[in-house]
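re: ur question from yesterday

yeah so i grabbed the chain u mentioned. its 164 aa long if i counted rite. heres the sequnce exactly as i have it in my notes:
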Amino acid sequence: MKSLIIYCSSHGTTEKAVRLLTENLQGEVLAVDLKKDKNEFDLKSFDTVIIGGSIHAGQIQRKLKQFMKDNHDVLVDKSLGLFLCCMRDGDAATEQFNNAFPQELRKETAAMGLFGGEFLVTKMNFFERQIVKKVDGIIEDQSKLDNESIMLFASKLNNVKSLV
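ran it thru and got these structure tokens back, copy pasting raw so excuse formatting
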């Protein structure tokens, strides 16, 4: 079974989650950061497609939105996983997740995950630091990355793969 992870990572948190996910998924896994990597892959050749990103100013990365829009018809026929890295909890995190991913894809998923997040102030530009300070009162790095949620997500996808 072949899995493709499509993601965007601005400050490295989503990339950390993808590394852990890659280590725990069965079969061949290709991870592609849309911000860095060339999009040279055949989406149709993968059994499972996982899409993940993070929230910045209330939105998931534009490149991920465009990827989902451009590949919608192929994605709905795949075993699909969707995940989000965000610092919110509970209903606020669920709302961010629902806003990040189209309903048509959410209802087709084999696994959905909220992986927590990080405020990496030391990696932010001046503008980002000012927003995070004003909105959340954060002035130093904070991590709430949820390794257990990442492992559970991988386990769900592995179970789906073993049923195929």
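noticed a couple things. The longest strand covers residues 48-56. also The helical segments are 13-24, 62-70, 72-75, 90-100, 103-106, 126-136, 147-163.
anyway ttyl
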